[in-house]
Design goal:
Layout (H helix, E strand, L loop, with lengths): L2 H16 L4 E3 H7 L5 H13 L3 E5 L2 E4 L12 H12 L3 E3 L1 H7 L9 E7 L6 E3 L2 E8 L8 E6 L2 E6 L1 H10 L1 H4 L2 H11 L10 H6 L2 H13 L4 H13 L7 E2 L11 E2 L4 E2 L10
Parallel strand pairs: 5-7, 10-12
Antiparallel strand pairs: 1-3, 2-3, 4-5, 6-7, 8-9, 11-12
Helix pairs in contact: 5-6, 6-8, 6-10, 10-11
């Protein structure tokens, strides 16, 4: 690899940071080195990776390792996620435990990152012990239930507290089950305002999630007022409840059923620090 090509790529990285960005793609490099072969460009990028100046976060997409990240030789996903999803032309939002953390309700700092996007599915990524889990929905993500937060290098789209609460139930398996979901919900409820729920929310969130969430709020988290608002809003927007188990993977024989939320109570909930 010629020094000139490395110099040009280094200059590209400098210019990208000057613009307030820390990400770039293969296409960006090819524009700077249009007269060079694909092989020579790959060699230059690989050298920068070995020098721990950049990290490949997805095929053809890279993040610059700023000095403050040099100790870990990695870039936190919050710093590059918005750029990555725009590059992939996919709507998205940071969800579950990571979203709860933005509202002071993570309980413990999440060790993984949870992102929700649309079909087709995306593979989870694991780069230098930093894992990003991608879950997908077949529905249109309701932008009015997302909030943008400023980061050091741009913005990140995060589910609002109300949607975060629902997703904790919908994707309970991804975060370790109902007990953990309820523990986080307990802290999250300080910021939740179900009075704002609209048609877009109920079109997006599964009715089964509304039922489980409402039951848990009323009977396990002692959030009677919030549960009543959720119940009222669900009826206003035409949600019809059917009998379902609290935990879908567990037997229901000889279990009682909550008549209001139509939940078969087949799971005992244990919540930390209540």
């Amino acid at each position: 690899m010629q020094k000139k090509e490395l110099y040009i790529i280094d200059k590209l990285l400098f210019n990208i940071q000057k613009e307030g960005r820390i990400t770039f793609s293969n296409e960006d490099v090819k524009k700077c080195l249009s007269d060079k072969s694909v092989r020579s460009i790959e060699l230059a990028l690989n050298r920068l990776i070995l020098q721990k100046k950049i990290v490949p976060v997805l095929k053809g997409f890279y993040a610059i390792i700023l000095p403050e990240y040099a100790v870990w030789s990695m870039v936190p996903p919050v710093a590059y996620l918005d750029d990555l999803m725009k590059y992939l032309k996919r709507p998205y939002y940071l969800a579950l435990l990571n979203a709860a953390e933005f509202y002071g309700a993570a309980h413990q700092k999440p060790m993984e990152h949870f992102v929700i996007t649309v079909f087709p599915p995306m593979r989870n990524t694991l780069k230098r012990n930093v894992k990003v889990n991608f879950s997908v929905t077949r529905k249109i993500i309701p932008q009015q239930w997302l909030k943008s937060f400023k980061t050091q290098n741009g913005i990140i789209m995060v589910s609002k507290p109300e949607l975060t609460a629902a997703d904790l139930i919908t994707f309970q398996k991804e975060i370790g089950g109902l007990n953990r979901a309820c523990t986080v919900l307990y802290e999250l409820m300080e910021t939740v305002k179900f009075g704002k729920l609209d048609k877009a929310f109920f079109d997006y969130v599964p009715t089964s999630t509304i039922q489980r969430l409402g039951y848990l709020l009323e009977n396990e988290l002692k959030q009677q007022r919030q549960a009543n608002i959720l119940f009222s809003k669900s009826k206003t927007h035409g949600r019809k409840f059917q009998i379902i188990p609290l935990k879908y993977s567990k037997p229901t024989a000889n279990c009682k059923t909550d008549t209001k939320w139509k939940i078969i109570i087949n799971e005992t909930i244990e919540i930390d620090d209540l």
